[in-house]
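Data card: per-record layout.
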Amino acid sequence: MRVSRKKDFTYSLGLILTALLLWNASIEHMMRDTGGVSASATLPPPASGNWTVTGNETYRDMEIVVNGNLTISGSLTLENVTLLINGSSSGPGKLLVRGGGAFTMRNGSSLSGWNNSGFFFEARNGSRIEINASTVSGCGLPMSTIKKSGMYSESGSFLLINSEVKGGGSGLVGVNARFDVVDSVISNVAENGILIRDGSVLEALRLNLTACQEVGIRSEDSSANMTFTRFESCTGAVAITRSTFMMRDCSIYAMGEHAIAAYTSTIDLIDCYSPSPGMDDLFVGQLSGPSDVDLLNTTLSVIVVEDDATTVREAYRFDIHVTTNGGLPAASADVEVKDRTGKREKQDLTDDTGWILDIPVVSLIHNRTGTFSMDPHTLSVSYEGAARSREFNASGSHYTSISAILSEPIIEFLSPKNGSWLPDRSIEIKGRISDPRPLTYLSMFIDRGPEVPITPRKDFRIPIQFGSDGEHVLRMRAMNDDGRISENRLFFGIDTIPPGLTVSYPEDGTLTNSSQMVIRGTCDPDSDLFIQGENVPHGNGSFSFIILLQEGTNTIEIRAVDRANNEKVVYRTVKLDSSPPTVMIFSPTNGTKTRYDWIDVKGAVSHDTVELFVNGVSVDFDLRGFSHRVTGLTEGQNRIWVKAVDGTGSTRTAYVWIEVDSVPPLLEVSDIPAYTNRKDLIITGRTERGAVVQVNGMPADINGTQFHFAAALYQGRNNISITASDEVENSITLYFDVMLDLEPPTFESIRPLDRSTFTRMVVQVHGEVFDDTGIRAIRGYNDSGPGTLLSTTGSFDWVITLSPGENVFRLEAEDLASNIRTTELHYTYDNSPANDVNPPTIFIVNPLDNETLQEGLIRVNGTSRDDRGIAGVMVRVDDGEWIRALGTENWEVELNLTPGVYLIEAVAEDTVGNRRYDHVRIIVVHRGDGGQETGEKSSITGTMVTVLAVLILLSLIAVIYLFMRNRKLREEWQEELSRARERPATGRRKRPRMHENGKGGPFDREIQGKPLRSERDRAERRDIRPADRRDRFGR
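The structure for this 1035-residue chain is written out next.
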């Protein structure tokens, strides 16, 4: 069956709604089976009276108000539920969990009385209570029975996790119950934070008891194990009777008389502290028997003991470290610690690292009679048969160590050094023995000789005499009172023969003029060689070493030292004479300048000179000195050097630098005008530093490299010469001709004449200007416009546009000397209509003449211009009707043409009736013909291609001809127009206005159908005046 889309949508929507209803019904059925009730379901508590839970019920995300008592025999679980116990008129309500029942609060649930009123809580034998991430407020009443004082549990289990119990009488109350409290807070209760009795057990981790009006925890005949529990601002922290308490890492801060009170109880405080010393005192009272109190790493401000049989022990953890000689760990050493009275406190074995950790050592004991120190303590160690002991105080550092030295004696030789060589056969052996135990025996062996006993002592000095050179070994043996024996060996040698040393160069008494001297010779390879104290290598037995000599006599020490410090010394005396002869250059001096390529050098030398060179050329000299000409100097810097040599070969050279400058100095002159109209000419420029500048023989002022000169000019031509000369007389001269002209140019033959009147708007002004020096510029200015450069020669032409009325123009002529002459022209423009005989211009821009177009709409556009304005433009096709074009100066019209050849004609008329025509011929073809007139589709053959090429060529020739013809006609028209405008208005014959006699209009029936073929035809038509109708322009 075919169903429409609308029916399909309705059917699908019905299925979806049915599925949702079934899903909601299944969820409600599931919640009913599991006991879960959402906020939208009907609440099971009755509107008034008690509420009894017998099954397993769970409620989430709601508020439940019980207007009576709540009794739980089964299991009640609340998740994010606010439970309010309203009670009745007889008193506060009560939440009772019967034996075997269970009550659980989780996930942000809260339990309190209605409108912050109190309520009672009782959990009986075998019940299970869990409060997790929830809050209980205002449970129990102060000064009530134990069952009504707080959250009461009897013989059941109570789990409090990440929750808070606040307000009411007491926080948690238990009789033979078990409480497990983790990460929770009990605060602002009127009595005790926790009250436990009769065999109850409390396990607390990170419990915070704050602002409890009595004590944080009160215990009778019960036990507690608390870790990281904080007591803050409670009257008392702990009060216990016949109970056992273990407190670790707890913070104690109480406001009352005693922070901790114990009666016949056992209490251990380990690593506990008080954030405020003085608020953490301990009181041990007398009851039926003594108490057992131990403080480990816990220091309380005040400890008061009133029971005669009770002792409070204050102990600290100690770490014992046992080592042997050299700091090595003593593993498995037997360690025993005793107090001052000899009581054993600890006995154990060290671990592999020699440690025993966390030994509780009692520092103080407190009883009714006072406080007593147990220091000093005795630490005893037994290790590998050796026993050591020491005393230490528990009141000091909590770390002590003991060393069990069990190694052999240590023998150390001080001299001679092991492996050394000695130059004497009589030696003394010095050394010492390190051992904490007494020595009982000492002996020595020399080489392979017998054992020689020595008096035992820890510092020894033993003299020995050897009969020959060579290597020796000494062995020494020592033993202490533990019977431990050690040995040590000393290796040394004796060498009494000095090393071999010979010096081959220099000989003693050598004379030299070199400051460096090479020492050569041979030496034993095993010996050290020193020349002037510097170690010289000589691996193969020979040596060569360079030393620096001082002027005069030098004593050189060559010393060889062998391994036993035997020496051989050789001395050489060498004299150094390095003073060179004296040489002086009198001329030229350093920095001398010349423009020649030669110079004469003159000077003198000392008497010990035996040879003289000037720039490498040997020169004769005597006691009076020397003179020599140096040639071949080059442009720029040249060095002249003179070297004198004495009899020992020592030389001395003197230098001077001279500069050859044969280049004229720089001379740059700022622009000097060829023509000027100023009698004073300021000449400036630049030259090189130090040069002299003269203008026409007169010195110019020079400042650094800039020069300045004021020259007086005379009418006419002036000749100026500028010369720059440097210090070596190099010079350069520049020549200039300056024409002084004080007369401005004159205007001649200005046409049209001043004060002329014109009937045309555009006028061409022509004139001549004369000046002796020449014309720089001719400029024209109108009344308000900017100037126009007309010419830079003696004649000018200026086409100006007149405004109606009188126009004032200004001509300005400037000659080459900047003299200026001006004159004014006053022209009047008479624009009355009677004077306008010039027709407008009109051009057809598109389409082009003889252009081929496709049939359909063809856009014809063009331009027209006239001084008076265009009245309108008309267009027609062949001899058809005239159509008015859109626009005047820029006009267009659309024509719908079919295939054929057409003549398109346009005419423009100005506001006084003058007209001008233009026309083009076009070819219109069928669409898709590509310009072929037949329009027939045929295959292209070679003949048709040839014919087509000929036609294209002919068309191009025709287009070029028509273009040239039209341009020539337009040029002729422009020329005629110019001549007409130049004719004076007074002598011009008025041309009859068109349409005066009704002929010559664009709708003349006499010329319909006659195509315009030439400009002559247009002129003929222009003279035809139709008399039978008015034209389209309304005339």
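Known properties of this structure: DSSP finds three helices and 86 strands in the chain. The CA atoms of residues 998 and 1029 lie 7 Å apart.

See the next section for split statistics.
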